[in-house]
Specification:
By secondary structure, this protein is mostly helical. The protein has two domains: 12-90; 111-173, Diphtheria Toxin Repressor, domain 2, CATH 1.10.60. It has nine helices and no strands. It has helices spanning 8-26, 30-35, 40-51, 56-69, 74-89, 111-121, 126-134, 140-152, 156-173. The protein is elongated, with a radius of gyration of 21 Å.
Length: 174
Amino acid sequence: MIPENPSRSARKREDDARQSLAVRLVSLSDPELVRLQLENELAEAIRFAASRPKHGSRRREILHVGALLRLENIEEIEQRLAEAVSNKRGSTKPESSDGSIPEETLVVGSPQVLRWKDALLNEDDAILEEILSSCPTVDLSRLRQLARNMRKKPGPRTEGRLMTYLDELEAESL
């Protein structure tokens, strides 16, 4: 049963989804935008937002695009966008019914990098020796700091920084 009046949190989630779609639309090139076959007013607003510098005025214009998306069928636009992106990439990855790639097909890092990350998060000092032996140019203080930040504030940003550094180390060791 779907409530007639969605909760404030549900409305915020919808607004956030519209804004993230607006950001993705503004990042498209003009030919990609034409292929999406959007309403003229929406397409012009997207082009105008894309032409703005990457600070205040662009942010305001993206908010305007998000507001215009309230009048559109967002699911249909997201579906066309997903098709355009998959056609552009020539992707053969399986997609779920909502157009997203299933989580089990995403590769987040090699098994060695994941093992290093887990050991660093568990404060296993023996892993530092292993990393040092496989990559002598490692900056141990930076590695410790990234792991400390990940333990202190877990999240996609801190995890991404740690994983990026570990991927770089693994590439050096090969």
